[in-house]
User: What shape does this take?
Amino acid sequence: MRARRIVLAIAECALFACSPFLSGQQTEWDRFIAEGDSASSRKQYAEAEQAYRHALQYATIHLKKDARLSVSSIKLAEACETEGKKDEAEGLAHRAMEELSEALKRHKPKNASEELMQADVAVGLLTKAGDLFQANERFGDAETAYQQAITIREHYAAWKPATKPNNEDFFRFMAQALSNAQAQVADARDKLGVVYRREQKFQQAEEQFQKSEAIREEVFGPDQPPVAQSLSDLGMCYALQGHYEQAVPLYQRAAAILENSKLRESPEMAAALENYSLVLRKAGKEQEAGPITAKARELRSKLQNSPDTPK
Assistant: This one.
């Protein structure tokens, strides 16, 4: 039980909190980052930007080739993006990726906990950079960021315990399992698949979503909601190409999975029904689409009138 509590604490640790990868004692950098995070949570983005600039300045002088340098850059990039300073935001995101690469070269994990934390920090930063690039339609840059994130996730998920595992091997195995390492590979592939789909690189997008779906079936089982997400993503690829007959069974299965889950009366279920009815109509199956459309409308109305539904 003690080992499990330790692993859970690591797995649930916030993205940039107290990692050995972000080495060193508390500094002025920590104070600037905390100020920026607090201002950002209050939507005081100009104040957040100023604090992150101070953090980056401090890191540039005192924390060269340390992951805190790349953290400063990506946080400042996000603040600039929010304020409409897109060119500067993109430049900072590129800088963050370069700084991360240097930090990864310099720091080799000493144990399993460091390895997990380093993977989470690196992927979190790359994902933030990729999201920023994608929002600005810099798809090539987004592809690069997401591909690097996939590589890190796959490397971590691929580790196999030794024939005679020691304590570190056991800890790594527990961390790998409790952090859903394989499922995180699927999440990373989804990000790349969405970029390809937006670029109309449908073959590449389909490949990512197919791999994601296969992973989720293995991890969660074939009839669980995470699989429905992959099926919907893949169905959209076919629908956008006008291949409605291929999209129909995917949306049908996605809706069936959600119908038999805790999400049967959720916004996800309403969206699945709407997509399913739409592709049925596009496929010329009006009679089949009618009841699905009615069910989707009924659920939407119920959700809108529910006090538990976010407005």
Q: What stands out?
A: Residues 112-135 form the longest helix (24 residues).
